[in-house]
Design goal:
Elements: H1 9-24, H2 37-51, E1 70-74, E2 91-95, H3 96-103, H4 136-139, E3 140-147, E4 150-157, H5 162-170, H6 174-184, H7 200-215
Antiparallel strand pairs: 1-2, 3-4
Amino acid sequence: MNDETVLTQADIDAIKNSIENCRQNDTTKIWDEEELAPVKQKIKAHYRGLLGEKCCYCCKNTHGEFKLVLDIEHILPKAHYLPFALSPFNLSVACKRCNMNVKGEKTSFLKDPAAAHITPEDTDNYKIIHPNFDSYFDHLCYENTTRNDTKMIKYTVQNDSEKGKFTYQFFRLKELEVDTVNAAQGIKAKPMKFSDLLKKETIDEIEQLLSKLKNN
């Protein structure tokens, strides 16, 4: 097993210390504890490897990209389900779009949010494809083809899967298909030059103002 993902006794102690610090300071923001930073790095490294460098919800490939493009994902939001903030079944990695912009702290992906406090590992309570309990491709087929300037991304629900349908809608995966599919069909608008956004006299004025800054 990769040493970068193995939790040592020191890591376990750091988790316990972080929890105790939160208790003493009367806060629930354990994720902000500095002592937890090395543990979080190992968690991210583990799930990046497990998923093959892709988002657990949209399958965006991040191979070779800066590690911050993927966030540690709490499937059950830690704001509502704090006891599971470090439970392996509740952790994965997701792109910032799916994690922060789309899902955030919502619980509408659960059939019964209250029941998740008691039986959090009940996969039937999740309307989305659960990153750790479900096989993604049993519910959604993800196609990603790139050739020169042509790129096509397509999600297709498998076997009329309810989880596939809900995941597609909840994470607005159609938004990730639109531009690339249109481009593949040759329906690509010509991009506007940045210089077209400004009048020449405005550009000249800005250049003069910047020139004065340089001379000061």
